Amino acid sequence: xxxxxxxxxxxxxxxxxxxxxxxxxxxxxxxxxxxxxxxxxxxxxxxxxxxxxxxxxxxxxxxxxxxxxxxxxxxxxxxxxxxxxxxxxxxxxxxxxxxxxxxxxxxxxxxxxxxxxxxxxxxxxxxxxxxxxxxxxxxxxxxxxxxxxxxxxxxxxxxxxxxxxxxxxxxxxxxxxxxxxxxxxxxxxxxxxxxxxxxxxxxxxxxxxxxxxxxxxxxxxxxxxxxxxxxxx
Amino acid sequence: xxxxxxxxxxxxxxxxxxxxxxxxxxxxxxxxxxxxxxxxxxxxxxxxxxxxxxxxxxxxxxxxxxxxxxxxxxxxxxxxxxxxxxxxxxxxxxxxxxxxxxxxxxxxxxxxxxxxxxxxxxxxxxxxxxxxxxxxxxxxxxxxxxxxxxxxxxxxxxxxxxxxxxxxxxxxxxxxxxxxxxxxxxxxxxxxxxxxxxxxxxxxxxxxxxxxxxxxxxxxxxxxxxxxxxxxx
DNA sequence: CGTAACCTTGATTAAGATCAATTCTCGTGG
DNA sequence: CCACGAGAATTGATCTTAATCAAGGTTACG
Lengths: 233, 233
Prior knowledge:
Two copies of one chain form a homodimer.
Chain A: H1 2-6, H2 16-24, E1 26-31, E2 36-38, E3 46-52, E4 55-60, E5 66-72, E6 76-78, H3 81-85, E7 100-103, E8 108-114, H4 115-123, H5 126-152, H6 155-170, E9 179-181, H7 186-192, H8 197-209, E10 213-216, E11 219-222, H9 225-232
Antiparallel strand pairs in A: 1-8, 2-7, 3-6, 3-8, 4-5, 4-7, 9-11, 10-11
Helix pairs in contact in A: 6-9, 7-8
Chain B binds a DNA duplex (30 and 30 nucleotides) through α8.
């Protein structure tokens, strides 16, 4: 397991010895598509690192609508919030997971890091604390961006921005990528974008008719970057 | 200034000496209503602590719509995210404020804590790092709650929840509070709730007609808790 | 195969934004 | 001290967006 832990960026500076200590209170677990890692309000055991596959973190509204807060990909962490929120008072407070989490890849593997020993571990390791803080800060920025998208933009703009960002993320070294495969179902994507499958489907169709993109199953191919950028604003 | 710093919960464990060190690279600044502390994308100088008054942190959409991300009240911090996000690489990266921030009280005082010296300061102080992490984690939870509200609830439910939470926050020791004064303009509240003043005004009126609350200027008085709770779900 | 989940398309409806107009308050300057 | 103008709030009429409702088609898996 230490080999896996080493690949997690926040742990990259740990010594072999520290990694083994970390591994000693961690646990490797595998899931299939649709398996649930934890439910909202369930007692908190610790945080997770996805090492393979993918999971979604989401909430339900009272009437059963689902909204995906984020999708977590390999070597990223999730559910660290309760850990730090209660850092000082870990033995007194009963604390719980703040959302639901389910595997959305049929071959998903995660590491569960138990909360209590980890808190002791981090208390003597300021550099690690600062790295984890960077992770939290990044998450905060992503969530603030997500909120901004949902609060300020209509569905067309959200979808256009999503495609634009996805392509940008894949493009490296001045090599623009112009197509990608959706790693999740369109239903989940709709939920992540704060809409419903019907509306997302219509939006994709409209974008095709307008010559912005081409959609074939789960592949999205960019046809006209200028039009895409116009659709974003 | 150390007297003020001492009242900030994350600094509560610092020694007199440490507080003075902190004060040495901090700066007390006063603002009037409408004064802007910083703009989105402006170069990052450091984070702020509100010690008096109130500020709003907000984003603009392309067509000028404003959405308030959060309202910051005395002895809370803001704009710490860039600090940690770049913690390791503070000297290389040009980093910037991620949103706009404006005073919304005519007598607002803040402390600006400069980023670079603070990073060095925290690097040798794991307990402080962990406390700041708790602050970030709490912010993350609040933002996730905010996102949930906006993504999953209609305006009626958002307004009802807002009133319910405001009353709950003020109620202590089994002493239910049944009225409160809005600390911000209704226009700002509308922006925070992801709607517009017209819609908020109509919602308040409907709630009055339904006998849920009474609104007089900026005072909201609860008339029927059961109906309020029904309106929330 | 058969069932269930996913996706698409069409028709309808409802929520809430936009547009427009009026009133009120408050701070500023004549 | 009063007048003026700006921002805030309210109300009404209208319009747009996207959710809901309904149905059919396609794919994947047991």
